[in-house]
Design a protein that fits this description.
alpha+beta; 5-stranded antiparallel beta sheet; 3-stranded antiparallel beta sheet; 13 strands; about 30% helix
Length: about 400
């Protein structure tokens, strides 16, 4: 697999040092660490290995990855490992995709309070799903949900929302039978939206009263309880966007979707087009344009100055230790195994039908490095650490 023509790392290496100096004191330690990790990723700065293919004999140097969760190059491997572990969680039912989005005013203060407000977004969205599904007027079942946080829009703007992947049904109150939702319909998005709005605002007031929110700049006045109450008033009346898509076309489609969404970063290298005197040009999708609109297209290009591109990219750096994939209800980590066993039993699925990671090739260890030319495993001839020079370059093979 060849290197992408342009990478986020190239932009940071070219423009990052001067931009860091110009914004000294305005970038968080987390943002500086992300910049440094991406700049050094798969370069000699992180060390690596000298390799030789056991098949065709090709020699290669493989530099180490930074493994930072914001790095566009490091997420495909992490997604693969995560998906292998999720294979065994799939149930033989329809799956639905639900999106909960914060309105713009809340998103504005979320940037200054990421851990608190992103945490509320997760917990209130999950509570909303579980409560409405558990209500006999709607489904009357205990459901499970996997929620994934995205904080960006396609143009790298700050747009916090969670994607929920939810099985289409749940366990009955007695825990012995499965209650399926109506084919093609999960839960009323209007009902979900109303409860989500009410509960989120209640929790926002609670954390404000507890002194857990910080306000700066144009929002500094919101530290006052009266001003905060007045600021909340319009949010009680506006629509909060909860969106439900049609069900996935089978469990494998769920996995394919998850592979694209769970470990996505603000922008992938594949969306970058050019870096020149005008700035950075990239592809983006304009969701305001409806699919099939006459003479219009959602897929567009945008050019931002390098400074603005880096600023937008770093808007999406998460607080240290913050989990951006979380499981609730039947899929909660503490009781997932037992809950899924009950669900399968109620659905009549035999235990032997449950997929497991590595089931196709049990006991076979996949090679860490694979030759780009012939696909055979590569042998490690030498390992070198950070700052260590390679003793000698690989010998060029004589044909």
């Amino acid at each position: 697999m060849g290197r992408a023509t342009l990478e986020v790392a190239d932009i940071f290496r070219e423009f990052g040092p001067a931009w860091r100096d110009a914004r000294r004191g305005h970038l968080s330690l987390g943002q500086l660490k992300v910049m440094s990790a991406i700049e050094q990723c798969r370069s000699a700065a992180l060390g690596g290995h000298v390799l030789r293919c056991e098949g065709c004999g090709t020699d290669q140097i493989a530099y180490n990855s930074c493994r930072n969760r914001h790095c566009p190059k490091c997420q495909s491997g992490a997604a693969k490992r995560w998906l292998d572990a999720r294979q065994a969680d799939l149930l033989p039912v329809e799956y639905y995709h639900v999106v909960f989005t914060l309105p713009a005013p809340v998103a504005d203060i979320a940037y200054q309070n990421k851990a608190v407000i992103y945490g509320l977004l997760f917990d209130v969205a999950a509570e909303t799903l579980l409560r409405i599904a558990g209500d006999p007027k709607h489904l009357g079942a205990s459901i499970g949900a996997t929620l994934v946080l995205h904080t960006w829009g396609s143009a790298l703007t700050h747009h916090p929302h969670v994607h929920g992947i939810v099985p289409g049904g749940g366990l009955a109150p007695d825990g012995k039978s499965w209650i399926a939702c109506r084919p093609g319909f999960f839960l009323s998005v209007r009902v979900l939206s109303r409860l989500f709005r009410r509960r989120f605002l209640e929790e926002l007031v609670r954390v404000h009263q507890a002194g857990r929110l910080q306000f700066f700049g144009e929002h500094a006045a919101l530290a006052d309880a009266t001003a905060f109450k007045a600021w909340l008033a319009p949010l009680r009346q506006c629509e909060w966007v909860v969106y439900a898509k049609r069900p996935f076309a089978g469990p494998q489609a769920v996995l394919a979707y998850l592979s694209r969404y769970t470990h996505r970063v603000a922008i992938s290298n594949s969306r970058l087009i050019a870096m020149d005197e005008r700035g950075v040009t990239f592809r983006w999708k304009d969701y305001r344009v409806k699919d099939g609109a006459k003479g219009k297209t959602r897929r567009k290009t945008m050019t931002l100055g390098a400074d603005e591109f880096m600023r937008r990219f770093l808007l999406h750096v998460l607080p240290g230790g913050f989990h951006r994939i979380r499981h609730y209800g039947l899929l909660a980590n503490g009781n997932r195994k037992a809950s899924l066993a009950l669900a399968r039993e109620s659905l009549g699925e035999p235990a032997s039908a449950v997929p497991s990671a590595g089931a196709e090739n049990p006991g076979i260890q996949q090679p860490t490095f694979v030759c780009w030319h012939c696909g055979r495993a590569m042998l490690i001839l030498q390992t070198f650490t950070r700052g260590q020079t390679i003793r000698a370059p690989p010998m060029e093979r004589v044909q």
